[in-house]
Hints:
This protein has helices at about 5-15, 30-45, 50-55, 60-95, 105-135, 135-160.
Amino acid sequence: MSALARLSLIAVLVAAPAWAQDAKDGYTADEADTVAEMHALEAYVGDGKRAFIEEQLDLTLQEDAKFWPIYDAHQEALQEFNQRRLDNILKYARAYDADAMDDATAIAIAEEALDIERDEAKQMEHTFHKLKRAVPAIQAARYLQVENKLRAVVRFEQAAQVPLVP
């Protein structure tokens, strides 16, 4: 399988945790169905992303023991960002569907999107600094690259499905 094909497949795997949260109060039936479908996808995907990362980093047993707890903590943090992103997209979708987009709503949605990006970048920086103390800096940098590439593909896929502000 080509690297591009694997990257595309893994992008789907990365997106799965974004939807793994239980449906929150306030979701419409369609929104709850979407969240449930994504939850099922996460269960189906399982450890695919982890296996891909493992393949890309080729860690020693010693590095492995130090890397995975940091990776797992980072993935938990990403799930929170994914949930925030999902909630923000749903807020946008509700306003868009109701033809109720006004300046205040557009500003709130845009500011939340910027906050999520900023917070996620800070989290990645924090994770990178922890990793470079735990594994060789080259491996930490490679993980940063792989994670960023996977997330970029996911964000592209998400953006392609969201229409521009009317």
